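Notebook entry, structure prediction.
Reason for the run: the old model in the group folder had no record of what sequence produced it. Starting over properly, with the input documented here first.
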Amino acid sequence: MYNKIIYTSLSIFDGETGNFIGTARFELPTESEKKLLDLLNYGKIPSVFVILDASVYAPAKTYFPPEPSKKYKRRGVMNIVAEDEYSGTPTPFEIRFTYDVVVRGKLSSELLYFDSLEMSNINIISIQQVRF
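New structure, fully documented this time:
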């Protein structure tokens, strides 16, 4: 059982074309961390998932910022490190999924930063523990 998420990043792809958009680092509010742990521990797919303070880095040259309140189809590869509840051992995972995303929260003049993003219509393609 995993009880804590200690690292997150998301590689983002356009849901229609499959073109790479960029990679983002973000924070998980408590409720979203719980939903991600429920996904890892029980296979329970969240209906809605919120991330905060998302910063896109290494964007594609074709990147354009999403408009607020407009829904976009996306594909994503989320990399996380979860902590084992009993041993404290960190374990890396890769989650591949499709989703819709809407920009929420305050807008910033920084085109690569988003205060809040809401994911919905989540479809999990695969969850794999990363091993070498």
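Summary: The longest strand covers residues 113-129.
The old model has been moved to the deprecated folder.
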